[in-house]
Write the structure tokens for this entry.
Amino acid sequence: MADNHRHDIEMRIGSHQVPYREALEAMTARNAQIAAGTARELIWLLEHPPVYTAGTSAAAAELLDPRFDVVEAGRGGRYTYHGPGQRVGYVLLDLKRRSRDVRGFVHALEGWVIDTLADVGVESWRAPGRIGIWTNDIDGREAKIGAIGVRIRRWVTMHGFSVNLAPDLSHFGGIVPCGIEEFGVTSLERLGVPLDFAQWDRALLARMDDFLSRLDRPSLKD
């Protein structure tokens, strides 16, 4: 197995809200720097003020009530909400140093979130044909607890995932989240698992080596 370069990755753990446009600008610049070999890879955990972001497949009809700022994100996918109480993880890695496998990267990213949720007591899964991370809500129906959206430029990844710890779930009502009308959204708080950002971050980073090792063997699906 190749060296997974964990020690070469900058870890940025945000303690305050970062406006989405500001984060997007910083992420885009860092992506170019990593591709040029002038900056280290980056994993950035942060929180945004309320915002709706539009992926490259976003349909205008899925923006139901633009009560917050709407930003063209440049990532794959459709409309997503970010806001207080949701932990966002931006993952900027150079796949030239690992395996150049986009699907393998996305699968590994999903696995990182799923494994971390299991560690804090919530079973979750991938659902065929539906992007994101899914679990059983308190009413027994499937609901989305995490979103996945990535972009890859010059084999350097950007964007990443978000997980609902304790956001205001009514804020999702302004969009059709990820274009999926028939399923709701949920959170760790709603499921009776109160977790602050520091606790979530510790659980996530405890699984980081597992995530990186998957990038060295993306053909091995779990």
